[in-house]
Design a protein that fits this description.
The protein is α/β, with parallel strands linked by helices and 408 residues long. It has helices spanning 6-12, 30-38, 42-46, 68-76, 127-132, 148-157, 175-182, 194-198, 218-224, 295-309, 378-381, 383-407, and strands at 20-27, 54-62, 86-87, 94-101, 115-123, 165-168, 186-191, 231-236, 250-255, 266-268, 290-292, 310-323, 338-347, 352-361. 27% of the residues lie in helices and 24% in strands.
C-alpha cells in the first residue's frame, strides 16, 4: 500500500488491527534482507538515526511463535544499522520492526521463515482495543463467543460505519455486534435459543458452576463498554422463518452461522416432519419443537435473507466451514443479487479450516431470483459428520496407544 503521509496511515489504522510500517528492506533469507537494507538510501534513514533521538526494535512473527531469547538474538544481528540514538523500550521517538513470515498455516510452519521484512513503524495498530474487548474480560460469554480480533476483522470486511444498522441472525452472545457497535453502528440480532437471549441457564465460563442472571445478555455487555446507546433489540426467532419485512433494512449482515460442532443448528419443526396446530389458550406458554437445521439450508436461507433485507451495496460477511482437501472455489454458495468480493481462509487444523466470505448486494431481488446452490448439498451437510468421525478416529488411536503402552 502506498500512503502519502503518516496522517493518512493513521486514518487507515482506524479500521486496521495491525500496524503500518515504512519498508526499508526485505528478502527470502536474513542475508538477502541485509543486502536490501544496505541499498536503502542513507539520506532517508538519517532523520531517524540521530544521536539525540531514542529508538527500539521489536520482532513480529506470523504463523509461528518464537522465544524472547531468539528475538533478542535477531535484534543483535541488526547492529550494522546506523542507529546512533539511545535504546529506549518505553515511548521511544522511533520504533522499528523486524517481521518474519512463516506462511499461512501454523500447523506446518517451517523452521526458517519464507520472508523477512524490516521497516520503521509509522503508526501503531489498535491492539489495545482488541485487548479491551477480550472475551476473557467480558461479563457475558457463551460456548461460541468469538475472539475479539476476529469480530473486528468481520466488522472491517463489512465496512461498518457510524449510524448504520447491522444485523446478526445467529447472534448468540453478541460478540460480532459488540465490534460493530464500537465502530458506531446500531445493532440488532436474532437467535432461536431463548436461554441466550434472556440470560438463563448455566454459565458457560470455565470453573463457574452457577446459573446466568438478569444481566447476562448482550445489552449488559454493551453497557460494559459504554455502548448501550447502540443497542436496538435482540429477538428470539427462527432464521429459517424470517421475521423481517422483505425490504432493504440493514447496511450489513454479519454472522457466524451454526454448523453443529460446539453448538447445534436448530430450526422450528417436528423431528417427525409433522405440523401440529397449538390451541389458542396454550400459545403464550408454548415452546415449539425443534429439529436439526442442515448447513445447506442455513446457507440458502442466509443468502436469501441478505438479498432481501440488505440495502443496495450493503455487505454480507459470514464464515463457511470446509475440509481443506475437498474445498473448491466453485463450492462457495452464490446468489444472483450478491457478488463475492473476498474469500479468506482461517486454518483450524491440518484437515479443517473456515472461509471468511464477504459478499456485496448488487441488485434488488425479483420473483425469478433464486439461490444458485452448488449441485451437491451433501458437501455442506457432511461437514459435521466428517468432523466427529475424525475426532473419534483420533480418540480410538490414542486409546490403542495407551493400551499398548500398558501391556508393555
Amino acid at each position: 500500500m502506498t500512503l502519502t503521509s503518516s496522517c493518512n496511515s493513521r486514518v487507515v489504522l482506524l479500521c486496521c488491527l495491525r500496524s503500518v510500517c515504512e519498508l526499508w528492506g526485505y528478502g527470502s533469507t536474513f542475508g538477502a534482507l541485509v543486502d536490501s537494507l544496505k541499498q536503502f538510501p542513507a539520506a532517508r534513514m538519517e532523520e531517524y538515526c540521530r544521536p539525540d533521538s531514542s529508538f527500539k526494535i521489536t520482532v513480529e512473527t506470523f504463523s509461528k511463535k518464537v522465544s524472547q531469547s531468539h528475538k533478542v538474538q535477531l535484534i543483535d544481528r541488526l547492529q550494522f544499522l546506523p542507529l546512533r540514538g539511545k535504546l529506549q523500550l518505553t515511548n521511544p521517538d522511533y520504533a522499528f520492526c523486524l517481521f518474519q513470515d512463516y506462511g499461512c498455516n501454523p500447523n506446518t510452519a517451517p523452521s526458517e521463515p519464507y520472508r523477512w521484512f524490516f521497516g520503521r513503524l509509522v503508526a501503531d495498530s489498535q491492539r489495545e482495543v482488541v485487548d479491551q474487548y477480550s472475551v476473557k474480560k467480558r461479563h457475558f460469554i457463551g460456548n461460541t463467543s468469538m475472539d475479539a480480533q476476529l469480530t473486528f476483522l468481520m466488522a472491517n470486511q463489512a465496512q461498518v460505519q457510524k449510524q448504520q444498522l447491522v444485523c446478526d441472525p445467529f447472534v448468540g452472545t453478541g460478540s460480532i455486534l459488540i465490534a460493530c457497535a464500537h465502530f458506531g453502528a446500531h445493532v440488532v440480532g436474532t437467535d432461536i435459543d431463548s436461554r441466550i437471549i434472556r440470560g438463563t441457564g448455566k454459565s458457560s465460563r470455565a470453573g463457574e458452576n452457577k446459573t446466568r442472571g438478569p444481566d447476562d445478555n448482550l445489552r449488559s455487555s454493551l453497557r460494559q463498554y459504554g455502548l448501550e446507546s447502540k443497542y436496538m433489540d435482540i429477538l428470539v426467532a427462527d432464521a429459517a422463518q424470517s421475521i423481517w419485512k422483505r425490504k432493504p433494512l440493514f447496511d450489513a449482515i454479519i454472522t457466524d452461522p451454526p454448523y453443529g460442532i460446539r453448538e447445534g443448528a436448530w430450526k422450528i419443526g417436528s423431528k417427525k416432519g409433522k405440523d401440529h396446530s397449538v390451541p389458542e389458550h396454550l400459545r403464550d406458554a408454548h415452546v415449539p419443537a425443534r429439529r436439526q437445521y442442515p448447513l445447506s439450508e442455513v446457507l440458502c436461507d442466509l443468502l436469501s435473507f441478505a438479498a432481501q433485507c440488505l440495502v443496495l451495496h450493503g455487505r454480507l460477511v459470514y464464515w463457511l466451514p470446509v475440509y481443506r482437501a475437498e474445498y473448491k472455489a466453485d463450492l462457495v454458495p452464490s446468489h444472483p443479487c450478491l457478488k463475492l468480493i473476498a474469500n479468506s481462509e482461517q486454518v483450524l487444523s491440518k484437515d479443517t479450516s473456515r472461509r471468511l466470505l464477504t459478499m456485496e448486494k448488487t441488485a434488488e431481488p425479483t420473483p425469478e431470483s433464486v439461490l444458485c446452490k452448488p449441485s451437491d448439498n451433501k458437501w455442506y451437510d457432511s461437514f459435521r459428520m466428517k468432523y466427529f468421525a475424525r475426532q473419534q478416529l483420533k480418540s480410538d488411536k490414542a486409546a490403542r496407544a495407551t493400551s499398548i503402552d500398558s501391556v508393555v
